[in-house]
Design goal:
Layout (H helix, E strand, L loop, with lengths): L1 H15 L2 E3 L2 E3 L6 H50 L25 H5 L19 E2 L17 E2 L2 E4 H4 L23 E5 L11 E2 L13 H4 L8 E5 L4 E4 L42 H8 L6
């Protein structure tokens, strides 16, 4: 009788406890469908929350990289100016008929290349379309680069700085002392690289405040770092800013120069001369087209 009760008790206990095999507890119970769906839903919600955060962090890192590039470019331009009587490099417009470069030494990036000795600093990490542009037919890299290597350019030198009202052939750039407020005027900023020759290495001019499909900030400028444009100013400082604010319609002066549609305001009651880099007058058309710039992400 005792043996029967002991066997019955052992059988009851074994039926209530998970079985063991090789020291591991084996359970026959798995996840239910509802539990799996709940886990999947939680993972999806977390991914939806965290993915934009990770993307923003990544873009901030790329913006910092881009700012570092422009800082090095700015230092190179300053060294270039020390050897050129404070004159800025040229925006190397090419002849629209022959496609030949005005400046035999190449575009502005090639002119300052000896002071950076790296082509990598001329490309933004977000730019996938920077054309390997060498200033037009026949232009070569200046010494000391023996390979005459073209430079993929993600940045443009402002025509207000490097073309001095568009006069002359070749065009003459400004000197630093021509600019009344160098801390307020953009020297180099981001642009797309969608052209093989003419206009590739420059950005901005008095007729760029519209929405032209080719020659306008709307079509050519870039604000790829969380909708911010990275630019270096004529005094050498680098800044990331909302492109629309560069038009001078807020509490800041026009950061480029005088455009064809620049108006007057209480602060600037006198009309400016289109092409004048010292023109601070606001341009509402430019502000609108900068806000609608198609190269934002």
């Amino acid at each position: 009788m005792l043996n029967y009760q002991a066997r019955r008790r052992k059988k009851t206990l074994s039926s209530k406890c998970p079985s063991r095999r090789n020291g591991f507890i084996l359970s026959s119970r798995g996840f239910t469908l509802i539990e799996l769906l709940v886990v999947i839903a939680i993972i999806a919600i977390l991914a939806a929350i965290l993915f934009p955060v990770f993307q923003k962090v990544r873009e901030n890192a790329r913006r910092a990289f881009c700012q570092s590039n422009l800082k090095q470019i700015g230092l190179a331009i300053i060294q270039y100016q020390q050897d050129a009587d404070e004159i800025f490099p040229n925006t190397n417009q090419t002849n629209a008929t022959t496609n030949a470069p005005y400046i035999a030494s190449g575009n502005w990036a090639q002119q300052v290349y000896p002071f950076v000795k790296s082509t990598g600093v001329f490309m933004c990490p977000d730019s996938t379309d920077a054309a390997a542009f060498n200033g037009g037919a026949g232009a070569v890299m200046p010494s000391p680069n023996p390979a005459a290597q073209p430079i993929p350019i993600s940045y443009g030198l402002s025509n207000f700085v490097g073309w001095n009202a568009g006069g002359g052939s070749p065009p003459a750039p400004h000197a630093l002392n021509d600019i009344q407020a160098p801390a307020n005027k953009i020297m180099v900023s981001e642009r797309i690289g969608n052209e093989a020759s003419f206009n590739q290495d420059q950005i901005g001019w008095r007729d760029w405040d519209g929405a032209d499909a080719k020659y306008s900030f709307y079509a050519e400028a870039r604000a790829s770092h969380n909708k911010q444009m990275v630019a270096i100013f004529c005094d050498g400082h680098v800044k990331s800013l909302n492109p629309a604010l560069t038009a001078g319609t807020g509490n800041t002066p026009n950061m480029w120069g005088c455009f064809n549609n620049s108006g007057t305001s209480a602060t600037y009651p006198v009309a400016c001369s289109p092409g004048d880099i010292n023109g601070d007058n606001p341009d509402q058309m430019l502000a609108t087209n900068m806000a609608n710039m198609k190269n934002q992400n």
